[in-house]
Amino acid sequence: MSSPIIYIVVPVFNEARVIGPVVQALRRIYEHVVVVDDASRDGSAIRAREAGAKVLRHAINRGQGASLQTGIDYALVHGAGIIVTFDGDGQHCVEDIANLVKPIIDGEADVVLGSRFLEPGNEIPIGRRMLLRFALIFTRVMSGMSVTDTHNGLRAFSARAARLVRISLDRMAHASELIDQIHVLRLKCVERPVRIIYTAYSLEKGQKTSGALAIIWDYLMGKLV
Amino acid sequence: MINYFQAAGGIIVVLLAVRVYKSYRRCQISFVAVSFWLAVCASAFVCIANPRLTVLAARFLGIGRGADLVFYVTTLALLGGFYYISLQLRRLSLHVTRLTRELCLTQQFLTEGKPGEFAQRFETLACLHDPSEEGAK
Asked: B93–A170: do the CB atoms touch at under 8 Å?
């Protein structure tokens, strides 16, 4: 049996400082790397293209959720068998992708979620740990699904799962929406440990407490209207 | 005798009514819309000009005070308006995102594909947006 075509989708917004090395690292192992540039103003698209990625560009900024769905659509149209989502700020490790896609190749899962809390080597800053724990409780209450890490950008979807799941929340609340949809669609989902590299840059770009409130608002509004 | 508040409120309501009517004359809003907003303006004008009427209406409805009646009606109208506007904004946002995505993918398909592949890719994309189309084929 031939191995499925793997597409790596990397949503990007103003990541020119780091996107080049991220794409180069991915391209050493994976042929299909799709960067979705969400109307960056710092030349991220040029850096990504120079590093060897296929670059899609949103004319206006629509958020990470919208970028992911654009990349997923592109990958599906091109016959992807497995789609991996990967953050563009350099906090994920390319080596973890193999562990994520294995359950899908083995037919054990439709969706594989990366979890930083299952990897004992991760040194998660206390502020970030508390924020993520709160997000976890919130997601468990709202979706009823028990996972250990809801807002981890490293995930893998089988083509079937990627076709069924549709991200409608454009911004960061899409992570909670994805968990909801996995639960509602009864997709086979497993978690795998992944490393997260916290740098001053990734912490600066990552979620803040005020951002968490915006996520909750977006998520609830998405549910209510 | 009217007080300053009644005078200011009355003027504002009349100006609003004139603006609504002008919008109707310019075919910017429908007859139903102009009727609704003129009725709202007329009610507001009557309430401001003669507040005792709200007391009579409140007693008729079993509420008691005219101010309470105005407060309840305003709260309900604002809640309904908030819900409606939220719904419209959400729809608008979804449409903008979809347009942005289709524009992005169209540009990409045009630059990378052969003419035959372009049409095929769009058919596949349409199926992704509406899974029922896939089943129909």
From this structure: yes
Question: B101 vs chain A: nearest CA distance in angstroms?
Answer: 6
The count of structural domains within chain A is 1
Q: What is the CA radius of gyration of chain B?
A: 26
- Residues of the domain holding A188: 6-224
Instruction: Identify which of B93, B104, B125 has the shortest CB distance to residue A59.
Output: B104
What confidence score (pLDDT) does residue B134 get?
43
Whether A163 is covered by a domain: the verdict is: yes
- Greatest C-alpha distance within chain A: 48
CATH number, domain with residue A120 = 3.90.550.10
pLDDT in tens, A27-74: 999 999 999 999 999 999 999 999 999 999 999 999 999 999 999 999
Q: How far is B22 from chain A (nearest CA, A)?
A: 33
Question: What is the sign, positive or negative, of the torsion defined by CA atoms of B119, B122, B127, B128?
Answer: positive
Beta-bridge mates of residue A156: A84, A112
CB nearest A58 (choices: B90, B104, B131): B104
Distance from CA of A75 to the nearest CA of B (A): 10
pTM: 0.85
What Rg do the C-alpha atoms of chain A give, in angstroms?
16
Residue with tokens 């794409």: A23
Decide if A1 is inside a domain: no
Instruction: Please check whether residue A26 lies inside any domain of the structure.
Output: yes
Q: What is the mean pLDDT of residues B3-21?
A: 95
Prediction ipTM score? 0.90
Query: Cβ(A111)–Cβ(A151) under 8 Å?
Result: no
Amino acid at A46: I
- Measured CA to CA, the distance from residue A197 to residue A205 in angstroms comes to 13
